[in-house]
Amino acid sequence: MEILGSANPKSAGLAALEVNLWYLLNASGCLVQFLDKIQLMIRATEELAMNAWPSLQTMLYDGWVLRFSDGYTKRANSVHPLYSSSLDVEEKVQACEEIYQSKGLDVVFKMTASAQPDNLDQALAAKGYKADSRTSVQVLELNSVDKAASQAALLTEDVDEWLPAFCRLSKVSQRHEPTLKQLLHNLVPARRLASVRHQGRVVACGMGVLQEEFVGLFDIVTDADFRRQGFGKQLVLNLLAWGKRNGADTAYLQVMLNNEPALHLYSGLGFKEVYTYWYRIKRKV
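Now predict its structure.
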């Protein structure tokens, strides 16, 4: 298989987004190389997602990425153990606990199958960290999308224009609104903030982030009074079309596994799961 012979870790990892896990395993018969490529794929996707949802502060610590954003969202206030680690894991976890607790935050680790070191999840569980928010990471080849939006969405770069409706639909507290606004302004890759209107009001919101040939979909939300009427689908189709017009060939998103309506929507559009992540959490005292 070409993916196993690639000399470019980035291209090998990204190419793995488009293949079926068991097909590759059975076809190659090379488990070690296969698992290496899976790890590269996960790390590449996690890097895309971190760039698409930045934090207010970031600290690098022996292969781990520590992110801080005044407590707004777990992904922006957690340890991302993405890269090879050399220090003792117990000492590192203790150091992270001290850092996050000094900021008045829960201690949160974002875990994937490629988390480093390999025994980190077991070590955290043994220390009393609870698993939480298992999430599916899914991808879609844009050339396979044969549906076009039947309703235009407003696509804007203006955070102030988009933010009030998003905060209303997502029930973002007033305390966290300034943090969210700053996170959006901190975004480096190109983005579009999308909204769909019906009967004079915004009924669906979301964001698309474009980096190289990938468009990520984030914070897709529909007004509770207007769900199951196709507005979320129209929003997504508009963002996919924007990404494709601007050079993207693959879309990705993250959806919690207990969100049945969203899973149904994305499955209907052709998204396929490539891996999952979860959090290990130790609540602040």
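The longest helix spans residues 31-52.
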